[in-house]
Sequence to fold (218 residues):
Amino acid sequence: MSRVIVVGASGRTGKLIVAALKKAGHTPVATLRSAAHTAALVKLGAETALLDLKDSTLENWTRVLRGADAVIFAAGSSTGESSAIDRIGVRRTVSAAEKAGVARYIAIASIGASTGMKLEGDWATAEMRDYYKQKRAGNALIRASSLKWTILEPGELTDGKATGKVTLSEAEIPQKSVSRADVAAVAVAALDAPRSIGKALQLTSGKVAIADALKALK
Fold:
């Protein structure tokens, strides 16, 4: 059993990660920037800590992370919020993890962030270009860290049910959707998948069981 900090736990994907961690026998610790979400996360079985990616100090983040075994970063900018929070949040939590002695770090980014995917069509907007700029900057910070990291880059997220089957690849793959539930399941399974360490993985729906997809990594 591991003690796992979930950053962005109040989001749709974050809540599913908390639930999946609890089901797997781990102890999830949900970081929240609003106390309004506390009751919902406690109901899912999480401990909670009020922390803000932008406003809380590095010392406060380090204090909460101390004693944890891993961090899962599932936070992201909200509608109307600058995408810079994606980079700032990664920098703050990576630094805190290093200071607190938390070795394992799993981040959820977006498909193509590490493969140089060209933004086309509806994705070729100023907002999306900035979003990917920030995600790529965050990825660079993670890669440069001393942590045992994994970056998951899922396709378009849906609220569909978990299928337990995905496509995982370090190389670029066709853009497809994937359920938040499957992303959560991969994030939790990756905690105990040493072959995922040091890899940025494209993640979409697929035909391979999650455990097998992680074991197949080179």
The first helix runs from residue 12 to 23. The radius of gyration is 16 Å. DSSP finds seven helices and eleven strands in the chain. The chain has a mean pLDDT of 93.
